[in-house]
From TrEMBL:
GO biological process: regulation of glucose metabolic process
Pfam (any one): BCDHK_Adom3
Source organism of the structure: Massarina eburnea CBS 473.64
Keyword presence, ATP-binding: yes
SUPFAM superfamilies found in the cross-reference section: alpha-ketoacid dehydrogenase kinase, N-terminal domain, ATPase domain of HSP90 chaperone/DNA topoisomerase II/histidine kinase
GO cellular component: mitochondrial matrix
Location within or outside the cell: Mitochondrion matrix
Ranges where the Histidine kinase/HSP90-like ATPase domain occurs: 270-465
Name by which UniProt lists this protein: Protein-serine/threonine kinase
Length: 475
């Protein structure tokens, strides 16, 4: 029996040494099976279907939602429960995205790139609708549903870069502020949609009940789906240092080195591809600043410090204010402020908050310190902007033509979610998207710059709790 060694769609080129790789055959065969055998039944999508499902409020997704079905291999009941949970949340999320796209100015939605994204969401919505009013009761049905999930993940693989090109072409018809607000929501919501689908696919491939049918099995020590319960930030930093350093050396002929301080042996539970992307973006900035300021002999210091567990019952303050970190709808793109369409239909407030876990959320703080001269004061207010919104006509034309020679070579590193190498080069998606990944489960990024000296960046992430002490109960 062939051993499949990695959760589906964790495709990062940088974390192979600390994330067990899944063979491409497992992913592509499932996707091809659904397409070639024409098992992906679709229905005609009506405006009523979209309106009905888009009217449902979207509560924040928690890491607890992703691990509640248990550690692989799952039993048949657990695997079916995971499939039905996935089915219960994805249709309304897709409907929200379709409605949000339709609330853009018509001339913007008419752009071929943005129109393609709208069509992709309609296609995925049409493949989910036949399942929306049903319950998955057998392994055979679960396998067919997994094919739908594989199709969804593949269909939306290049959403970020396609949207970037579309908004760049349509920049005359929509303000940079509106573009930024839309992208903040849309890309954050996309994180959750992909994570839900990929989590079930990873559980699907790593579980036993369907082996006789799929002829696949998988060993993933330490993993629950796409979540690594023994994730080592130090190993991610080391590997990202190697990748970013090679590109830096190719561009500049030199490369800084990284020193790791604090607690390099610390481990916590989180999504490795998210942490890898954030660290890559932060090291890119630190390396570039260090080299361009002529300080390449000075190390980039990375300090790793555990975040303490937080128990709500122990979090009382004398002033009565609960300071426990919460997951917000706005952090996950569920508020739909940009579309101005859901505030009246939502039964719960848009600021709805919940703990990443109800009982404990140990995590990590990572400080990245460089001697790269700091950030110019006039630049500080714009570090979280999608920089392409400030392009002039020449820069826009160069980017649309695929000419990035004048851009920073380090931007050639692609981010997670399937967008190809160089597809986002020069578009300034790095930091905004990195912050979205950090904030998605109650973390964050803070930047402190001392102009003329250097920059400290503080990344905090909340984990999934002490997995060894948890009992996983299928609801």
């Amino acid at each position: 029996m062939v051993q499949v060694q990695r959760p589906l769609m964790i495709q990062s080129q940088f974390i192979r040494q600390f994330c067990p790789p899944i063979t491409k055959r497992a992913t592509s065969s499932l996707f091809a099976r659904g397409r070639q055998s024409r098992r992906l039944h679709t229905v005609n999508v009506t405006d009523n279907d979209i309106t009905r499902l888009a009217s449902q409020p979207l509560h924040p997704l928690t890491l607890a939602d992703l691990v509640k079905h248990g550690r692989s291999p799952l039993t048949t009941a657990q695997l079916l429960a995971s499939a039905n949970f996935t089915l219960s949340v994805l249709p309304s999320r897709l409907a929200h995205r379709i409605q949000s796209l339709r609330n853009l100015p018509f001339i913007v939605v008419s752009n071929p790139h943005i129109s393609k994204i709208h069509s992709n969401y309609i296609h995925s919505f049409a493949t989910l609708l036949p399942w929306a009013e049903t319950e998955i009761k057998t392994i055979e049905e679960e396998i067919k549903f997994a094919e739908v999930m594989a199709d969804l993940v593949q269909t939306h693989a290049n959403t970020i870069s396609i949207l970037a090109r579309g908004f760049l072409e349509a920049r005359k018809y929509i303000s940079p502020k509106d573009v930024t607000q839309f992208l903040d929501e849309h890309l954050r919501a996309r994180i959750g949609t992909r994570l839900i689908a990929e989590q079930h696919l990873a559980l699907h491939f790593s579980s036993q009940p369907h082996n006789d049918i799929m002829h696949e099995s998988m060993e993933m020590p330490g993993f629950i789906g796409v979540i690594d319960t023994k994730l080592s930030p130090a190993k991610i930093v080391q590997h990202c240092e190697n990748v970013v350093g090679e590109i830096c050396e190719l561009k500049y002929g030199v490369r800084p080195h990284v020193t790791i301080k604090g607690e390099p042996d610390y481990e916590f539970a989180h999504v490795p591809v998210h942490l890898e992307y954030i660290i890559t973006e932060l090291l890119k900035n630190a390396f570039r600043a260090t080299v361009e300021s002529g300080m390449e002999r000075e190390p980039v210091e990375v300090t790793i410090a555990p975040l303490p567990e937080i128990r709500p019952e122990e979090n009382g303050r004398s002033d009565g204010v609960d300071s426990t970190p919460k997951v917000k709808n706005a952090d996950q793109g569920n508020a739909d402020v940009a579309s101005h369409s859901f505030t009246k239909n939502t039964s719960s407030p848009l600021s709805y908050q919940m703990l990443p876990l109800a009982h404990s959320t140990p995590g990590v703080t990572i400080r990245i310190r460089d001697r790269g001269g700091g950030i110019a004061p006039e630049t500080v207010p714009h570090i979280w902007d999608y920089s392409f919104t400030t392009f002039d006509d020449d820069q826009a034309s160069s980017s649309l033509a695929g000419r990035h020679s004048g851009m920073d070579a380090l931007n050639a590193i692609s981010g997670p979610g399937g967008d190809g190498a160089n597809s986002l080069a020069g578009l300034g998606y790095g930091l905004p998207l990195g912050r979205a990944y950090a904030e998605y489960f109650g973390g964050g990024i803070a930047v402190q710059s001392l102009h003329g000296w250097g920059t400290d960046v503080y990344l905090s992430l909340r984990g999934v709790g002490q997995m060894e002490q948890r009992r996983h109960v299928v609801e």
